[in-house]
Write a structure and sequence with these properties.
With about 240 residues, this protein is mainly alpha-helical. It has helices spanning about 5-20, 25-35, 40-70, 75-105, 135-150, 150-160, 165-200, 205-230, and strands at about 105-110, 115-120. About 35% of the residues are buried.
Length: about 240
């Protein structure tokens, strides 16, 4: 039977998992995906897939660390965090490229014998295509795995210092992961609300919001890389 002290620790782990979903790098990564799929259902699935990938990596790495009773090497942890920074820059950059390439482009046509050039957007044409749920979940799942690897060092150091057995440590990680999944689902749905709201104000506002998500992701990624590169404390 679980003792009161361990139940308290598990409750704390759930709360910390919920709080973990609000980390700046998590919000930046998820925002770039939510900006492309404006619906509450898609947002919830993105958050769930992200949290699931995050939790899976924590459990796998945690099992190794708890069995061997050794912390994750600091150079590896820093490299993983630097990789997350690079990934955020990549996600933001890809969204920017998509906006430039697919949303707005120069379009030439003839009118009364003279050629005119103007900006044209295919975004004004509604796309009624629907992808499979599993295909749309692969990217947030993989991104969640990358974030789980980058954030595993601090969590597993705490687990190593407090867990009395491998089973207790893995239980704590699982509860922490559950909290992060719930948190990411809620965060995803909340963050998607401004995107849905922007659609009611017209395509220009929606595109502007996507641009802000792109710039935010790149800015957070570059900031992470800068602080890691110069040995400063992240955020």
């Amino acid at each position: 039977m679980l003792d009161t002290e361990f139940l308290t620790i598990l409750g704390l782990g759930l709360v910390l998992g919920l709080r973990h979903a609000l980390d700046t790098d998590h919000l930046a990564a998820v925002s770039t995906m939510l900006a492309q799929r404006p619906s509450l259902r898609a947002s919830g699935m993105i958050g769930f897939s992200w949290g699931l990938g995050h939790t899976l990596v924590l459990l796998l790495v945690g099992a190794v660390v708890l069995v061997l009773r050794v912390p994750i090497p600091e150079p590896f942890a820093l490299a993983a965090e630097f990789g997350v920074g690079m990934m955020l820059v990549f996600l933001g950059g890809m969204l920017a490229v998509r906006l430039i390439r697919e949303r707005w482009h120069v379009h030439a046509h003839d009118h009364d014998g003279a050629q005119h050039v103007h900006l044209h957007s295919h975004a004004l044409v509604e796309d009624h295509g629907h992808g499979h749920w599993w295909r749309n979940s692969i990217r947030p799942f993989c991104i969640g795995m990358a974030h789980g690897l980058a954030g595993s060092a601090a969590l597993l150091l705490l687990v190593l210092s407090s867990a009395r057995s491998v089973s207790e440590g893995l239980t704590y990680i699982a509860v922490f992961g559950l909290g992060s999944i719930i948190g990411m689902v809620l965060v995803g749905m909340v963050v998607s609300l401004p995107v849905l709201w922007s659609l009611n104000l017209g395509r220009p506002v929606f595109l502007a919001l996507q641009g802000l998500a792109s710039l935010g992701s790149v800015a957070v990624g570059l900031t992470m890389m800068y602080h890691i590169g110069f040995g400063s404390q992240l955020f």
